[in-house]
Amino acid sequence: MDIVKQALIWIVIGAATSPIWGALLWVLWQGSIRPRLISRSEIDSVATEMLARYGARAEEAALAEEERAWRESQIFQRGKWRRVRMRIAVLAKTYLRQKNEDDT
User: Fold this and answer.
1) How many Å apart are CA 48 and CA 64, to the nearest integer?
2) Where are the alpha helices (DSSP H) in the chain?
């Protein structure tokens, strides 16, 4: 009987705290896991489009989009724009390295 009582107490505690850990799992899914499921080609296409449109300020524009998504509580969009911003930084370094090699 003592084991059944203890099991029921843990079930009640789990049910009472389910909104907390449920929200935590949802934020983890939307902010970390789901943005990583976006294909690299899609991220590359958005990054190259931003570089073509904004040039040297493309990373700042992507950061502005990321901050806008944060202000509007769009967790998935924030993760997407974070990936785009990181990819822009890599592409810009590669472009600058190639430009320096071509100049020499």
Assistant:
1) 17
2) 2-28, 34-36, 40-54, 58-71, 75-103
CB atoms under 10 Å from CB of 76, counted, come to 15
Tens-place pLDDT, residues 48-101:
999 999 988 999 999 999 999 999 999 999 999 999 999 999 998 887 677 667
Rounded to the nearest 10°, the torsion over CA 45, 48, 53, 55 is 160
DSSP label of 57: G
Is the overall model pTM greater than 0.85, yes or no? no
CA pair distance 91, 69, nearest whole angstrom: 23
